[in-house]
């Protein structure tokens, strides 16, 4: 296994054998992925750790496995209730005790959790809370202080740490105060996990969290089962999407990302009229309606969800076969994150971007005239459009274009070769041309 040289596998109290046994017996997995063992070793050894990785890379194991082995409680700060509930459900299925104090908690449910935390050896191994809860809840801070004083505060986990950066598109202001945890609970190790971000945002996250001398681990970049393609949007977006879905996946689950609220509603209407079960999802809808839409989609009552960027973190539906963008995304980061909602079950999924020349002009106009943006933000957002346009127009491998944007990927690597079924459209046509040339040369020799 090629791990980060920064990590190591020395024989700690937590020997590699013990970690492997936990991986197999509790998590029901066979092998560690690249840098998981190294990150786990580092956090168990009380070092500060920063793990960066693509969608579905397996970042969660880097804190969940140590939480099971460490004495005391691991406190996880996570941005969304839905994400928290999803994690708790998965851990509970594995027999790991995880609780949350966020969301609609009655007094008695919260009291019972505080009671368990106050016990000499709390059964709770992972406590999930939102950053707002950390900032606003005195009882929570008291409980953390009590755990700390008794040596039972195992570590802090900052999940989706990209939310701390004002430059990223997931920015959440309440992440900004999390650095105080390091000062208030001296010596408690911190592990931050982030989706793929460009190097300046990575620096920005580390600076904002004020993590002391962290060990940085990078996990898999390349989503090998995603088949990327860009197509010209010919008519209204709906017709293109309908034809593509009907031809490729008439009955399977997928997402169509749209630009504005109305676009989602219109797209869902068009898809429904064409006989595909679709629902709309955007921030203009009441919270309850959004919940219903997501619930229907999760339960396959609705086949296609037509959504804005609001349909984001914490989507873990395993059988999403396609993510279509019916309009140009605003950045490579956004495109990478959203297209990565497919392929959670390891089978090939399609990421199609329907692009029209007009998209760039429309986005450019809207950003330039957005009075809520500072001059600096406008400049940054307009700058973010350039690499995504280049992605649309490139004749080279789309994977390389996408992943080298985040740094660390050699442009001469042939990433599409790792899975022939998920080869991008450009590599596919290049291969076809090669075959044609070989054939023609062969025929030429015969005549
Ligand atoms: N070592 C491993 N072997 C096989 N599967 C693994 C391994 N580690 C994690 N996984 C699986 O990979 C999937 C994704 O893991 P996880 O949810 O941790 O991803 P992530 O890095 O947090 O990505 P995202 O931010 O997109 O959620 C899960 O189904 C998990 O069980």
What do you see in this structure?
This protein has 447 residues and is an alpha/beta fold. The protein has 2 domains: 16-218, P-loop containing nucleotide triphosphate hydrolases (Rossmann fold); 226-406, 3-Layer(aba) Sandwich (Rossmann fold), CATH 3.40.50.300. It is 43% helix and 14% strand. It contains 17 helices and 13 strands. The chain has helices at residues 16-25, 36-44, 61-69, 81-93, 107-118, 131-136, 138-149, 180-184, 199-209, 237-248, 261-273, 287-298, 332-339, 357-368, 375-393, 398-404, 425-446, and strands at 49-52, 73-77, 98-100, 126-129, 153-158, 190-194, 215-218, 226-232, 253-257, 278-281, 304-307, 320-325, 349-355. The strands form 2 sheets. Strands 3-4-2-5-6-1-7 form a 7-stranded parallel beta sheet. It has a 6-stranded parallel beta sheet with strand order 8-13-12-9-11-10, sandwiched between helices. Helix 5 links the parallel strand 3 (98-100) and strand 4. Helix 2 (36-44) crosses helix 3. The radius of gyration is 23 Å and the shape is globular. It starts with 15 loop residues before the first helix and ends with a helix. The structure holds adenosine-5'-triphosphate (ATP).
């Amino acid at each position: 296994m090629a791990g980060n040289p920064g990590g190591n596998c020395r024989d700690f109290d937590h020997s590699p054998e013990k970690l492997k046994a936990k991986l197999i017996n509790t998590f029901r997995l066979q092998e560690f992925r690249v840098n998981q063992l190294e990150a786990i070793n580092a956090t168990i050894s009380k070092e500060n750790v920063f793990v960066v990785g693509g969608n579905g890379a397996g970042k969660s194991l880097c804190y969940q496995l140590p939480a099971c082995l460490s004495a005391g409680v691991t406190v996880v700060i996570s941005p969304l209730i839905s994400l928290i509930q999803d994690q708790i459900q998965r851990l509970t299925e594995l027999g790991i005790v995880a609780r949350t104090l966020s969301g609609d908690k009655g007094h008695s449910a919260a009291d019972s959790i505080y009671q368990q935390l106050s016990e000499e050896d709390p059964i709770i191994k992972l406590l999930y809370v939102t950053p707002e809860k950390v900032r606003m809840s005195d009882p929570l801070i008291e409980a953390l202080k009590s755990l700390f004083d008794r040596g039972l505060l195992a570590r802090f986990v900052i999940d989706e740490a990209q939310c701390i950066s004002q430059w990223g598109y997931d920015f959440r202001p309440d992440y900004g105060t999390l650095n105080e945890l390091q000062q208030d609970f001296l010596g408690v190790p911190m592990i931050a996990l982030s989706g793929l971000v460009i190097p300046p945002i990575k620096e920005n996250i580390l600076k904002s969290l004020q993590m002391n001398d962290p060990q940085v681990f990078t996990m898999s970049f390349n989503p090998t089962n995603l088949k990327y393609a860009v197509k010209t949007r010919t008519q209204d977006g709906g017709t293109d999407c309908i034809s593509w879905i009907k031809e490729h996946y008439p009955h399977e689950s997928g997402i169509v990302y749209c630009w504005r609220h109305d676009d989602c509603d219109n797209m869902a209407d068009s898809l429904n009229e064409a006989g595909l079960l679709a629902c709309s999802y955007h921030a203009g809808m009441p919270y309850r309606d959004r919940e219903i839409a997501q619930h229907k989609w999760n339960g396959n009552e609705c086949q296609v969800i037509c959504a804005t960027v609001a349909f984001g973190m914490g989507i873990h539906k395993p059988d999403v076969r396609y993510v279509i963008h019916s309009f140009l995304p605003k950045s490579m980061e956004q495109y990478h994150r959203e297209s990565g909602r497919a392929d959670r079950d390891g089978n090939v999924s399609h990421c199609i971007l329907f692009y029209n020349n007009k998209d760039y002009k429309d986005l450019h106009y809207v950003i330039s005239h957005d009075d809520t943006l500072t001059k600096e933000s406008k400049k940054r957002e307009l700058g973010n459009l350039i690499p995504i346009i280049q992605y649309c127009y490139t004749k080279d491998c789309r994977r390389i274009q996408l992943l080298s944007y985040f740094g660390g990927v050699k442009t001469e690597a042939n990433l599409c070769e790792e899975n022939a079924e998920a080869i991008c459209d450009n590599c596919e046509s290049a291969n076809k041309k090669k075959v044609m040339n070989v054939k023609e040369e062969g025929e030429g020799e015969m005549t």
